[in-house]
Specification:
The chain is an alpha/beta fold. About 30% of the residues lie in helices and about 30% in strands. It contains eight helices and eleven strands. Strands 1, 2, 3, 4, 5, 9, 10 and 11 form an eight-stranded mixed β-sheet that branches. Strand 3 and strand 4 form a beta hairpin. Helix 5 runs parallel beside helix 6. The longest helix is centred in the middle third of the chain and has 16 residues.
């Protein structure tokens, strides 16, 4: 099925192409069929389903703290909030908890969902625990190589100011209608790149990986 995702502003992630007001991405199954102004895409594919998003549509983001957030942290279940709180446990608190592999797998699944809520479609760094790798792969996130430890404190926000990363640096792959290009992108409640940088990736409203809508805030 053909689906057109359109937003107030489209950033392809390719510096050679300017932002597209009212831009859109035509998705054919798992891949991108076309990128451009909404009117052009609907004229070429009038029977395509349309999803309209307010804000900014960009390529999906890379979180450089894969091991730190998914293997060296425990994301409490909401039912554990009274005992463990709601923030990830690390260091001595994680050691004291001593979670089993099953609990680590459940934690990783929750961590992945929190990443998706920040427009994350890939993580960097070596992941060794099978339960964590399974959670990442089932969600469709890719694992990228990391040549050096990232700057700043680990954060679920790929645009966190501590890390000093720009949107361009956080983008995994620009949006382009090349053969086999994955339909992977995110939408943020921000009017432009400057506002997104200020608000951070927590203003994500939708994350799509391989054509699947895996996160939607509303």
């Amino acid at each position: 099925m053909l689906t057109i995702h359109t937003a107030d502003l489209l950033l392809t992630g390719d510096p050679r192409h300017p932002p597209v007001p009212g831009g859109a991405v035509l998705v054919d199954g798992r891949t991108i069929a076309a990128v451009g102004p909404y009117e052009e895409l609907t004229e070429a594919s009038p029977t395509a389903r349309v999803r309209r998003w307010p804000g900014l549509l960009t390529p999906g983001l890379l979180n450089p703290y894969g091991p730190e957030l998914l293997e060296h942290a425990y994301h409490p279940d909401p039912r554990e909030a009274d005992e463990l709180g709601t923030e990830p446990l690390t260091g001595e608190a994680l050691a004291a908890l001593a979670p089993t592999d099953a609990r680590r797998g459940a934690s990783a699944r929750r961590g992945v969902q929190r990443m998706l809520a920040h427009g994350t479609v890939a993580v960097a760094g070596d992941l060794w625990r099978p339960a964590v790798l399974d959670a990442v792969r089932r969600a469709g996130l890719t694992v990228e190589e990391r040549v050096a430890d990232p700057a700043g404190a680990p954060s679920l926000d790929p645009l966190a100011r501590d890390g000093g990363r720009s949107l361009r640096e956080a983008i995994v792959t620009p949006l382009a209608p090349v053969p086999g290009a994955a339909a992977t992108f995110a939408v943020f409640d921000a009017p432009d790149e400057a506002a997104l940088t200020t608000r951070g990736a927590s203003c994500c409203t939708a994350t799509v990986i391989d054509g699947r809508l895996l996160y939607r805030s509303r």
